[in-house]
Design brief:
Number of helices: 4
Largest sheet: 4 strands, parallel
Number of strands: 8
Strand order of the largest sheet: 4-3-5-7
Helix content: 25-40%
Length: 155
Amino acid sequence: FAVSQPAAVFETSGTTQGSPGRAYLAETDLYDQAAMAAFRHFVLPDRSAASLCWLNLVPEPRVRPHSSLGHMVAQLSGASGEVHWLLDSALRADARRFAALCDHAAVNDLPVLVTATSIALHAVLTTLPVQWSVRLPAGSAATPRTYSVIDRSLS
């Protein structure tokens, strides 16, 4: 395919390999299908993504169109009723809004899915007051680790 006309260009900061890079995709169908299949198998084997309140501590594609992680989360959460993007354009996490949405979900018995990088989740947990915690409803999950209780003291 013509690299000058890719369907998507994903950029890497190089934190794993030590140098930044780009991946040029002629199309995203295979990438999207593989992500969805793995997600359904490992994260949602017994429920629908549409039944979750998504709290995304990853780059929103509208703000960071070259983020493969943001693209993947947008594809996975696309049919969901409640999707919240909690990083600003400088990739700073909105801890207050995160806490308010967790509290809202707990009060309304709405299962939550937290998608996050470890750095973003740590930033949220270290920003919140030490006494803050929330018991998430049954069916909730978080990446990179699953919590039934999100507790500030875990950070």
